[in-house]
């Protein structure tokens, strides 16, 4: 699925992490108390009570820092997956030759149109990027226009899939 964020941690994740850390610290304290090495109440409430909080704070900071780096990587991966998908569809439907594909790769206007298609797929239609502007960048009847028509149809499918995915996620 394009544009999904699998790595975002919820509050429930941090609550479970806190409970697991608390259980681990308590079990360790009970173990030490059973061996007679420490008094559990003094040991636990003296210094080890804060460890579960420290662990959860560490996890939160770690995920925030890693999340920023991962977001940049995911953004590049999303764009690459989008380009691969729409390229395959355009090549299959229009039976493009490698020479024609090379012309599209080296054409700045076509690359801008392709990026606009990516923006529409990701964010939906807006004033700056919409299907009408996407199709009006090239004259009707040209190969670029036909390719963009195929890509626009695929973008509509991607948007529908994304909306269906969001609806399924809300139901869970």
What fraction strand? under 5%
Shape: rod-shaped
The biggest sheet, with number of strands, parallel, antiparallel or mixed sense and barrel status, is:
none
Parts with pLDDT < 50 across at least 5 consecutive residues = none
Helix content: over 70%
Q: What is the residue-mean pLDDT, rounded to a whole number?
A: 83
In angstroms, what is the radius of gyration?
26 Å
What is the overall number of helices?
7
Helix-strand pattern, N to C?
HHHHHHH
Class of secondary structure makeup = mainly alpha
State the end-to-end distance. 17 Å
Model description:
By secondary structure, the protein is an all-alpha fold. The chain has two domains: 64 residues, no CATH class; 77 residues, no CATH class. 77% of the residues lie in helices and 0% in strands. It contains seven helices and no strands. Helix 1 packs antiparallel against helix 3. The longest helix is centred in the middle third of the chain and has 44 residues. The chain starts with 10 loop residues before the first helix and ends with a helix. The mean pLDDT is 83.
Summarize the structure.
By secondary structure, this protein is mainly alpha-helical. It has helices spanning 11-34, 40-46, 51-94, 98-105, 108-123, 131-135, 143-171.
